[in-house]
Amino acid sequence: MSATAGHAAEGVRSPADRFGIGPEMVVMEMGYDDDVDHDLRDSLIERCGELVDEDTDEVVDAVLLWYRDGDGDLVDLLVDALGPLADSGMVWVLTPKAGRDGHVEPSDISEAAPTAGLQQTSTVSAGRDWSGARLVAPRAGRGKR
User: Fold this and answer.
1) H-only helix segments in the chain
2) pLDDT in tens, 39-90
3) CA–CA separation, 31 vs 54, rounded Å?
4) Fold of 22-138
5) Three-class SS of residue 140?
6) Helices (H) and strands (E) in the chain — how many of each?
7) 132, exposed or middle or buried, with CB in 10 Å at 0-12, 13-18, 19+?
8) How far apart are CA 84 and CA 109, in angstroms?
9) Could you tell me the residue ranges of all domains in the chain?
């Protein structure tokens, strides 16, 4: 029995559950560096298979954007994330928690999202050092890109 199966039997949810990532979903990763949460990545890879990079030609169901203060313009990165994203897809902006190197104020995300054509729907603790903000296209705007 795998460790994951053992956790499932005990009612412990996988981090992939919090992110709404399911089997067979295509997930694109942007902003990868050595400081990412490898336990979270491993959980997501175990759930959906490999993570594709931002050069993919596939339509993706979700985007994981690891973003730190100083990583460039968040609006531009979000617009780049929208290119391959399915109409019903989601973007997870993963940022270092308060007090960690590269911390991004939550207001920076909530201000950048509408400029990129997205709205924030929820936030999660994405690990010991990372927070996640879920962004989606507004319902009225879906399918109009």
Assistant:
1) 3-9, 15-18, 38-48, 74-82, 106-115
2) 999 999 999 999 999 999 999 999 999 999 999 999 999 999 999 999 999 9
3) 9
4) Rossmann fold (3.40.50)
5) helix
6) 5, 5
7) buried
8) 20
9) 22-138
